[in-house]
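Honest question from a wet-lab person: if I give you the sequences of every part of a complex, can you actually get the arrangement of the whole thing, not just the pieces? Trying it with mine:
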Amino acid sequence: MSEKISIRMSGLGGQGAVTAAHILGAAAYRDSLQVTVNPFFGAEKRLAPAESYVRISREPIFERGEVLYPNIIMIFHPHVITLGKCYTMPFFDGLREGGTILINSGTPLDLTKEDRQSLAERRAKIYYVPATEVAMQVSGTELSTNIAMLGGLYGIRPITTMKALEESMMERFGGGKFVASATTAALDDAVKEKFGKVSQMIEKNMEVVRKAGESLTEYSLS
Amino acid sequence: MSEKISIRMSGLGGQGAVTAAHILGAAAYRDSLQVTVNPFFGAEKRLAPAESYVRISREPIFERGEVLYPNIIMIFHPHVITLGKCYTMPFFDGLREGGTILINSGTPLDLTKEDRQSLAERRAKIYYVPATEVAMQVSGTELSTNIAMLGGLYGIRPITTMKALEESMMERFGGGKFVASATTAALDDAVKEKFGKVSQMIEKNMEVVRKAGESLTEYSLS
Amino acid sequence: MNKPIFQISPGFEEIMPPEYRELVANGPYGKGFGVSDLGSYKELIEEHPLCAGCGLALSIRLALASLPNPGDTVIVGSTGCSSLVFPQVALHNIHSLFGNQNAVASGLKRALKLRFPDKVKDVVVIAGDGATADIGLDMVMQSWFRRENITTIMLDNEAYANTGGQESGMSRQGAVLNMAPTGKKFPKATLPEVAQAAGCAYVAATSPAHPRMLEKAVRKAVLIAREVGPTYIQLFSPCPTNYKFKPQETIPLIKQREKEGIFRNQEYISDEAQRFLDSLEEARKK
Amino acid sequence: MNKPIFQISPGFEEIMPPEYRELVANGPYGKGFGVSDLGSYKELIEEHPLCAGCGLALSIRLALASLPNPGDTVIVGSTGCSSLVFPQVALHNIHSLFGNQNAVASGLKRALKLRFPDKVKDVVVIAGDGATADIGLDMVMQSWFRRENITTIMLDNEAYANTGGQESGMSRQGAVLNMAPTGKKFPKATLPEVAQAAGCAYVAATSPAHPRMLEKAVRKAVLIAREVGPTYIQLFSPCPTNYKFKPQETIPLIKQREKEGIFRNQEYISDEAQRFLDSLEEARKK
Amino acid sequence: MIEQKVVNPEFLFFTAEKKKLFMTGSEAVREAIRKANVDVAISYPITPQSESMHLVGDLFAEGYVKEYFRGENEFAVMSSVAGAAMAGVRVFTATGGPGTLRAFEVFPTWAGARLPIVCAFMTRGVNSPLTIQPDTIEMAYLLETGILMLHAETAQDLHDMILKAFIVAEKTDVHVPVGVFADGFFVTHTKEALEIPEPDIKLPSYDPNNSPVPPMDMESVPVRQMRDPFVMKSNFISYAAHASWQQEVDAARERSRKYLEKYLGGLLETENEDADVLLVTSGTAVCQSREAMAAARAQGLSVGLVKLKCIRPFPAQEIKALAAKAKAIIVPEFNRVGWLAKEIKSVIDEPGKVIGAPRVYGGMTMPPELILDEIRRVSR
Amino acid sequence: MIEQKVVNPEFLFFTAEKKKLFMTGSEAVREAIRKANVDVAISYPITPQSESMHLVGDLFAEGYVKEYFRGENEFAVMSSVAGAAMAGVRVFTATGGPGTLRAFEVFPTWAGARLPIVCAFMTRGVNSPLTIQPDTIEMAYLLETGILMLHAETAQDLHDMILKAFIVAEKTDVHVPVGVFADGFFVTHTKEALEIPEPDIKLPSYDPNNSPVPPMDMESVPVRQMRDPFVMKSNFISYAAHASWQQEVDAARERSRKYLEKYLGGLLETENEDADVLLVTSGTAVCQSREAMAAARAQGLSVGLVKLKCIRPFPAQEIKALAAKAKAIIVPEFNRVGWLAKEIKSVIDEPGKVIGAPRVYGGMTMPPELILDEIRRVSR
Amino acid sequence: MYYAARVAEEKCTGCKICIISCPDSNVIAYCETKKVKIDAGRCKGCGLCVSVCPKDALTVSQD
Amino acid sequence: MYYAARVAEEKCTGCKICIISCPDSNVIAYCETKKVKIDAGRCKGCGLCVSVCPKDALTVSQD
Ligand SMILES: Cc1ncc(C[n+]2csc(CCOP(=O)(O)OP(=O)(O)O)c2C)c(N)n1
Ligand SMILES: Cc1ncc(C[n+]2csc(CCOP(=O)(O)OP(=O)(O)O)c2C)c(N)n1
Ligand code: SF4
Ligand code: SF4
Ligand code: SF4
Ligand code: SF4
Ligand code: SF4
Ligand code: SF4
Ligand SMILES: [Mg+2]
Ligand SMILES: [Mg+2]
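Yes, you can. This is the full assembly:
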């Protein structure tokens, strides 16, 4: 990787944006990259806005807090944009020149003309991935939506090795020791319930990653 | 009066040093003098130290708080010195050149040699007045000890007119509106109980003042 | 609905949000609605951000639907899950600090009495178990000791839910929660008994599993608080998120607890309060 | 008296104040003294600055004389008249802030248990009615809810006495006091009932007019607190200074209140606590 | 209620005939509240404030105050006072020292909720060790809570400032709480001469309709209205709203300057301001400084005095200008930490001029002689 | 209890082999406490502190901490912690924002009672309006409470400072409480790389016999001993004792400098200290400043950084010396009031050099770009 | 894509129990047909109503 | 000059009630004579003991 990647993940409480950020960050850390992960939330409630920020680089990273000028924006739920359920507004403003947007949706959203125009000016790339659908299809639960979103991301740009990603998931779902908020812990339990064994779950998750990577559509701004 | 008089009254809770200061201050105020009165106490308990400070002058007075350099020290109870029940120590240190000390006692106290020497150097005058005895004899209650102490003071130096003093007492014991601490209020009630009418009480008190003035003994330091 | 506060100034109808217009046209103020009317009028809550399926949200919805006079009711809340609902509630309501709800309500009620001597202004406190039985207990009890004319409703989800599921004084003994890693060491606080000992004129414990019982309790509590003295209602509804059960299990779970005798619907009413209710009933009959 | 803490280092006997030497020679530590032994040993209090004749001072004196194990008892006090006594008491004792006594005691007791697992260290809270029933009520009750092994003694003089006689929650209804210029508007708080509802294993209300009853209550309370759970004692003794009666009327006044039924000596003991006392009695007999 | 004539504030402050009285600071509080047309007063005892609030209770009994009760602790009292203020009435309370600290969390919420509460703080030292004596340390803690802070030198100031505080606090473009500080004992318990208007007049009553935030009474729009709702929205708006709300409260405080100028006659007052040495202080440290200044001038030393009447908003510009001319600035304080010296140092160009002494704490008075020593030292 | 090897503090801090970990600030607190040999920890939930104290609870369940419970509110928790400390054990707790304010009255008593409590403050904004986001305003309030104050930039700092805090706090000649401050979310919830010693070693246990004030356990002389007795004597002695006690606590704080120097490697840390423009700040404003400094230097601007690790005692002399050489001093802060800028202005010779900006509050991060703007502005 | 409750009209007796058991306001409405109707846009699919319907007239499903 | 309680020895039966009713410690002592003795230096003359003595053996007076 040549320069710092700053990622903003915006979702709703319960969708696992915070977990996705942790998995991605830990994977990068395993690949010996410099990394910080910041979750950010107000009321920790299902469907309330939840954002998470990941910064990855080969150089030391000091900065923390919200990523105001992301290279990559991941949108876990259309409501983030359509209902303004996010911490950053106007939503696309900070996206860097040549940045990437990844949206969980099967079909393109109706972006405003202004948004489309300004994104085009910045030579932004927009991708859609039906993450919830993929999660349902492959692992049988929409709770893997966040993993599918990571799959979409890796489909666009493999931020870490697959091995690191898999190990990071293992660490996250394997031990009992991971520190998560109560809401997250409750969802973790629900996820684990779905699968008999952790290994089985990781396997499914890696399949979700692959499948999601294959289900990307690029959306033309012009 | 040519210059500022600063008086420190030291007594024990329940002896009325605070009340005496208020009466004296109000009398001076009636005589159109400048005056401030500061009571000072810690735990407001019977027999706990209680001090009160009166500053009287023809010129404006700004200063407040304890009188550190008094012209006059009034000691309402020997324990003030003998048991150190006071706010100022070493007790006589601040007395001004040529200052006056008035002690409630029938017989001279056993002052330390150092005290006697340093007081002599400052040309201090020491007076004794058996204030509690006078109070008992004249008004039949030791609760008038504070009035007797004022009597002793006026015997040494008539700080205000007698008329102002009498009116001030009238105001203090007459209305029901005087603001006093609970302990003081309780004692007030006890005092009032003693006398049928306020006027009778004031009359007795004025007699206490006169009698005390006559019962002074000067104590020679040499 | 004659109070000008509920009317939209002429000419402004268009620009008001549709929910607001609906509220004005079809809200519950001054209508004497109750729980049975739910589903047929525009309610006081306009969407809320609590977890989907939260029984505490249901408790609030039912409690608000049970208010005898929403048009003149001011709510005092406290920090906690419930405080996320109140910005969405079409009543004047206060959030001050975590736990000081009954002190705020005491000042509020007394001041409202001064300003509106001829009107009834109900002051209803709605707060979590942590706010009521832990951090705010002194102020809650003193408002009872002082016989303030306010109703206190505790939303008992058996945890500090909004901060991520810590043990509260209302958690059951043995419950393993955050900050109680080896299980809670002491029993659930007996607030209804304490309330009674502290001078409440009316005390009830019930749950959203019994909407009509809940409604009766709230109505009685608010009416009695107006004239007789402080009243207390405890609404039981464990937090699914933090106790990790499915929201749809909430009501079966409450009923199961009832069967096991772990939770008891209770009601206490002082003689004076009963006489007062009887007199209202008399008056109504005439 | 073998604990080195009670011995004067050899050679220093001369320079220690006589009161201290007397205490070492003739104090109550480890002697099993009680109220009946007063007058025949050097007491724990060395003069106190409370008002002459104050019944609260008598309550403290009797309570200290009733401690089953003064040599290993730590007192936690609070701001108020009583706090003026404690600097004069020959026990380790803490003054922290007004009203936080039971919270301080909770931390203290748990830490002492850690440090001295094989020793009994009694922690006894002694504080005013304002400290206990008003400003500190939350912390008092939570220590009960949490079942802390501490004894709480309230000195009920029916007022904030140390600040000059203001109405407290324990003042009687109608009492005209500072800050209650038109008379207190609500009844005396019913702390014994509240204590029982809050989980105390032993609750007693009595007064210094019954020194032996007081002694029994304190002994039971301290012993039960060691093993069973929190205990509460309320000692009634109105403040003569602020209620403006003569100190020597204190005891007749208390007895009169008893006759009128205004004050009631009460005792409540949980079954578990009773069984524990019985077992102690058994053991003693053997 | 007692019959009193409602007069306009300016008349009460400046025009009404005054009577001379000899009374304590606590009594001066009573006389202020007697004329302040207060609706609700809530009390909790603490030395040296108790007497003031006893006297306010007497006013309630006499019918000058409409509602009054004793709360259960200071945190609760300050919360109840907030509840009453939100209901749209004029409220008063007082506390000091440990009471101030016990209630601490509430003060920033008063400011944030734009409540025009007037609270008298009778300053006292704080634990540990326990003390009940004068000390202004609590002011250091309150500096950034968002309340306006006036500091009385005398009982006269205390009386006047309380009355004026209501009027400033309630201006629509201000509408924030005001703390009136008076040094315990030195002001509360000292008996001195005052000149105050007769008690048969009073301020106009508080009009909640002039409030920039509507009262919580279900009488005003919008119906869906919460005091303190921002974070609840959990999005960017909440941050922006929070930040801008803080700015608005700041701005409201700044807007109070013009009213403070008008009613107090300036945020500070000077005497011999062109002197070489300036004594700059507030509260009863001013009284002591006056004595020291008189003595020093009698000895031919060039000494002036700057009395700060208002600590928040801070008269930074005024002080900066005065400091520029002086050779040395002595800041006597009744506390250990020297918060006022720090304030002053941080707003002037040459903080090296500031002498943060004498500092007296622990309960004793500040002998003018100590100030004189400093004057002599710097005048050498 | 879990078996761990007791090592001497210097070994643990400087010599012990370190392992790399990727974790949050909250987890870093757990790892510090795991090795801190804590006897009693008491908790009360508040965002963003809760997770730390959950984790400390887990340590209790695992046997690393001997006693742990949830208190009823922060005032009570801080009181219980004081009670435990007086009994002669090592205690830990944490809070933040409103929790800090709720407990406010207790902090000066910790200092006054010479209790070596270590408390982590996870800073957050305070009401009204309610916010749960990062803001360092509570530090402004705590400056004069008498506790030592360390401010962590990163999770690494937080971990290290907590462990070192115990050792400094417990020195006989110091023996005062230490607050370790970390910016909520920015440190507590951020996951980053740390290097920390293995968990099989721990600090020596607290020895109450080294305390300058004996524990309350009826095991040490004198028998007649009260914590906090002074005012009770009600006489001159009480004043003198009170004043001199305050001086002694002050002095104890000053005496901590030598230990802080030793363990923290200085109260502050500099980078390019001879630059024209110095960024002087603490906490996560330092991280943001590092980014800004890097960007500015890349653009050829002369910028240095002063990271303040310790706010109390304040490194006044060090800052004064550094400031003398700089042309401008930029103080970025995460609060509205700018308490750090004020501190700095009050100790340097030319406060006019200080730029109290950017200030961010309301919950958002401080974009390094804003700091860069200030650098550019002053470098012009 | 999102879950919501649906009514099997034929089973519903209009007893309103579901209405008063839904944690969200104005989701289930009572119709003139004496049956209930669910606003799928507001329904959060939590299933509380399902757990109380005495007639098993409710289910939660994805649209 | 100061008030203190005094015992009329002939009346005193040594019942100790006064001892346990005195608010001050070590003022009233129990003697070998099975009567009580008052330390006038410590006695505050409050009269509490007087109010409880069943034998009217106590009085408060000035020395
Ligand atoms: C003084 C203070 N301490 C702690 C908090 C953090 N806090 C906010 S809500 C909450 C829990 C509320 O619990 P509860 O009252 O039971 O309501 P719930 O969230 O369970 O509905 C806590 C601990 C705070 N806001 N203020
Ligand atoms: C936070 C705080 N508020 C108020 C006070 C003032 N204060 C000290 S003692 C006291 C009254 C104590 O009353 P109580 O507990 O009944 O004890 P008593 O003096 O009656 O024995 C008060 C109000 C204080 N010290 N701290
Ligand atoms: S956390 Fe629990 S109580 Fe709070 S909204 Fe979610 S489900 Fe309801
Ligand atoms: S004020 Fe009352 S309670 Fe306090 S010491 Fe005096 S008599 Fe006793
Ligand atoms: S509960 Fe079932 S039967 Fe009753 S109204 Fe609802 S859907 Fe119809
Ligand atoms: S699923 Fe939940 S939200 Fe939807 S109607 Fe049923 S109870 Fe209401
Ligand atoms: S009470 Fe009376 S009879 Fe009994 S011991 Fe005392 S003096 Fe003697
Ligand atoms: S008069 Fe009072 S102090 Fe003296 S012995 Fe009797 S009870 Fe004790
Ligand atoms: Mg709860
Ligand atoms: Mg009392």
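Two things worth pointing out. The mean pLDDT of chain F is 95. The radius of gyration of chain F is 21 Å.
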